[in-house]
Write a structure and sequence with these properties.
two-stranded antiparallel ribbon, 189 residues, alpha+beta, single chain, 22% strand, 3 helices
């Protein structure tokens, strides 16, 4: 049935070899991550767009190692318990494929957690802010505003083309005119 295997290989040997190779890769990645190496997975550019913003990168080292490990262990267990070769191969392949897809899905979730932590001031446009230091009228000078941005409070320089805005006044951020400088207007304008 499995004529593709050399004479000195049995199906059990194939399963044990797959489990050993896959398990060694998993253990190596675990050991490297404990010492701060291997935090990023090596990905082969093969993404499948499932709609929306969920992209699974199937061909990653972790997903392949998971497939090999589970395929080998389940196949080996199947032959030891006396399953027929086609049944053990089918169940082993199913277990490996399930592990492969689960690892790819978990890695896609992990990628979504990645964040640079860098504040993007442009996101303040259109939001409400509070005047921190008085803003002179008719763009004669600058004051300061505080705005809730990306989960934290940020302080920026601001000017207005309208009337003077006193400290504590709620304002609308109109636009960013240069890095860290915003045009604002009173909320009732």
């Amino acid at each position: 049935m499995f004529d593709f295997l050399p004479e000195y290989w049995s199906l059990t040997t194939l399963y044990v070899a797959c489990a050993a190779v896959g398990g060694a890769i998993v253990l190596l990645q675990l050991a490297l991550s404990l010492f701060g190496f291997g935090a990023d997975d090596v990905d082969v550019e093969a993404e499948v767009d499932l709609g929306g913003d969920s992209d699974l990168q199937f061909l990653s080292i972790r997903a392949i190692a998971g497939f090999l490990t589970m395929f080998g262990l389940v196949g080996w267990a199947g032959t030891v318990t006396g399953w027929s070769p086609p049944i053990s191969a089918l169940v082993a392949f199913g277990a490996g494929l399930t592990t492969f897809l689960a690892v790819a899905w978990l890695l896609s979730l992990q990628r979504k957690l990645d964040s640079s932590g860098t504040l993007d001031p442009k996101r303040a446009e259109g939001s409400t802010a509070r005047v921190y230091l008085r803003i002179p009228a008719a763009n004669v000078g600058r004051g300061k505003i505080t705005v809730e941005l990306q989960g934290r409070t940020a302080e920026f320089e601001a000017f207005t083309t309208g009337s003077e805005l006193a400290t504590g006044t709620q304002v609308r951020v109109v636009r960013m005119t240069s890095p860290g400088v915003f045009q604002v207007s009173a909320l009732d304008d």
